[in-house]
Amino acid sequence: MRAFLSVVSLQLKAAARSKAVLLLFAASIAWMFAVPHLVSSDGTVDGAHQVFVRYSLWGVFVLLLVGLGAAGASSLSTDRDARRLQLTLVRPAARFSVALGRIVALVSVGAAVLASCALVALCRTDAARRCWHVLSPVMESPRSEAERAYRRYMESPETPEELKKTDRRILVRILERKAFDRYETVKPGTSASWRFDASGIGADDEIAARLRFSSEMGTREDFTGAFALGGRVGSASNVTQRAVTVPLALADGEGSAADRLVFTNCGRDSLMLRPRRDVQIVHSSEDCTFARNLASALAVMLSMLATVVAFSVFLGAGLGRSPAVFTVMVTLFLAAASPAVMDDYQDEVNSRRGDRVGLALAQFAGVMTRPLGSFSPIGALADDECVELRDVGRAAAVDFLLLPVLFALLAALVMPIKQESST
Amino acid sequence: MADASDNVIELKGVEKTFRDFWLRPTVKAVDGLDLAVRRGEVFGLLGPNGSGKSTTVKMILGLLAPSAGKVSLFGLSPSSPSARARLGYLPELSYLHPFLTARETLRYYAGLCNLDRATTRERIRELLEMVGLADVADRAVGGFSKGMARRVALASALVGKPELLVLDEPTSGLDPVSTNEVKTLVKTLAAGGMTVLMTSHLLGDAEETCDRVAILNHGKSIAEGRVSDLGTSLQSFFLAKVGEGRRFEVAPFLK
At what angle do helices A95-124 and A19-38 cross, to 10 degrees? Predict the structure, then answer.
């Protein structure tokens, strides 16, 4: 334990006495203050809040990922290149402690920067601002819907033979994405309903129904309609916003089933909705505040940072400084770009061989960097959506504990191999 | 005849072949080396440049794995933490963290040796006084002269109170006064029961300090024994064994 603490202390001193880390700290705080002057909002209080939270924390997070990623990759590799590492390796300290100590120290630097920026964010926003838990309809999984559709296609005599010969995994993946984006049309004067798991909603919670109209064409509908959930009802008319949130209040008379949201289209036009994306119930209790949500979001961000730092320390243990830093930067770029690549190039069946290779690489990068790309706490925080405890728990268990320990073990394994080759 | 259990370091048929990226052998740095260093002696590993001294030391330290043969330290593998806990190492150059002070440097290595806080404090005070750096203990070592940095490195090697001290060219680059201090220190430590293994180019230093020496050439031990048993000066013996036929051909250049 003493050896581990010595390594942590060494790395913290290296960070504290390095101009690069001081610069990172100063740049992060400066960015928090600069965002409201650099990015303009729609003029509303909500808009200003959203813009400030999204862009300030996003900027700081990117700075930390790049800065601490580079610092992690340089940490062991610089010491090895300067032949200092051998003086540590001949001591009785476990190599795992040496790697883990470096990771913990750099993550602590990240935690200090994030905490400082969070304080700035709390000073510049309403800490008691209400945040919302978001529920989506309980539906068959897109995967199983895709599997059913695939079987139907294969059995149908109308399906072209060429399509039947296509790789099953590719077709199912395309159908899965289509299932996720499947539209339901609600004609004027008719109703549609979706089941929700409403067990987490408290008796005193504020509840609202939310529809989103951001389609692929970027259009938005003129919306007039009414909602019912259990004994609560709500309605809205002539709204042309991209997201419509309709508060549901207790009403006399019969409502719908307690777990079923019923929507009636009272307008003149048909509405096209993607239930898996566009229909939500939001609810909030007294304790769902921005301050609490910010703490949860920071915990998730710190966990993601821990994974990146651990990965970069591992690379620094096995590679020279320059290749390690380069690999970390490329990985960060792939992690950021792969979801967009997969969204933009879905129709892989008709694409050329080069496109398919590129798509396969993007998919591989997407899978390997899923801890970074699967969940965006900053987006949720900016949209006043609760960063749920289960997400914080998953991030803490996997990204903050499991992956860093795994990378530290791998670093301990490759450290002597690289040390030998460079001696 | 010394008992094998008295051997602090033992090398049996040790070979080290360096390989390139494609695992093709490039250099055989050590070739079938047998060596034993006994408890409490000062042992000198001598040899010309490229003779395999540093490679041998690195295998003893566990930084390099032998390609063949066996290296043992206190009867254990050199990579064993128990063996490493009884070892101190001074490399050829000091390799210090320039942003740390002398006191912090010693505290870092004391931590790696798992010393408790009170022992660490006491040991650091003793060592800083011993190497004459107590007055500059809180200055960053990046600003130290080569001699001062060497003293910090020596104190770092001793911070865990090792039973075996491995010194790689300990007087390299030091002025005569500092060289003399190091030699006196080595003799004092040996008199206190510490085993010392040192490599050196400086035969005078080795002759003065070592109880026994081994001379390496092309990765092989060509002579091993007590300095007093050589029957001649170490310098003459070394030149006769290693320097045979080795001289610069200056005449064609001068023509």
Answer: 30
- What pLDDT digit, counting tens, does each position of A99-139 carry? 999 999 999 999 999 999 999 999 988 888 888 888 889 98
Looking from the CA of A263 toward its CB, the CA atoms found within 13 Å total: 33
Q: Contacts of residue A95 in chain B, CB cutoff 8 Å?
A: none
Q: State the burial class of residue A37 (Cβ atoms within 10 Å of its Cβ: 0-12, 13-18, 19+).
A: exposed
Range of the domain at B117: 97-160
Q: Are residues A146 and A273 in the same domain?
A: yes
Instruction: Indicate if A59 and A101 belong to the same structural domain.
Output: yes
Q: Where is the domain boundary, A284, A302, A336? A: A284
The verdict on A277 and A142 lying in the same domain is: yes
The pTM for the full model equals 0.83
For B114, which of A2, A419, A420 is closest by C-beta distance? A2
How many domains, in total, are found in chain B? Answer: 1
Question: Two tokens at A401?
Answer: 């504990």
Most B CBs within 10 A among A90, A98, A100, A420, hence the mutation to make, goes to A90
Structure tokens at A238: 């002539």
Q: Which of A6, A17, A89 minimises the CB distance to B111?
A: A6
B116 touches chain A (CB under 8 A): yes
Q: Are B64 and A423 a contacting pair at CB < 8 A?
A: yes
Q: What is the value of ipTM here, to two decimals? A: 0.85
User: Under DSSP, is residue A134 helix (H, G, I), strand (E, B) or coil?
Assistant: strand
Backbone φ, ψ for residue B22 (5° rounding): -90, 15
Q: Where are the beta strands (DSSP E) in chain B?
A: 7-19, 25-38, 42-46, 68-73, 87-90, 164-168, 195-200, 212-217, 220-226
Q: Does the distance separating the beta carbons of B58 and A423 come in below 8 Å?
A: yes
Tens digits of per-residue pLDDT, B64-89? Answer: 889 999 999 998 999 888 999 999 99
Q: Are residues A364 and A349 in the same domain?
A: yes
Residues 104-133 of A with CB under 8 A from B: none
Q: Does one domain contain both A378 and A414? A: yes
Cα separation, A161 vs A143, whole angstroms: 23
Rounded distance between C-alpha atoms, residue A118 and residue A304, angstroms: 17
Q: Which of A334, A398, A392 is nearest to A365 (CA)?
A: A334
Task: Look at chain A and report how many structural domains it folds into.
Answer: 2
The answer as to whether B123 is a domain residue is yes
* Containing structural domain, residue A40: 2-129+290-422
Same domain for A270 and A145: yes
**In-domain check, residue B134:** yes
Query: Among residues A249, A269, A284, which one ends one of the domains?
Result: A284
Tokens of B184: 């006196």
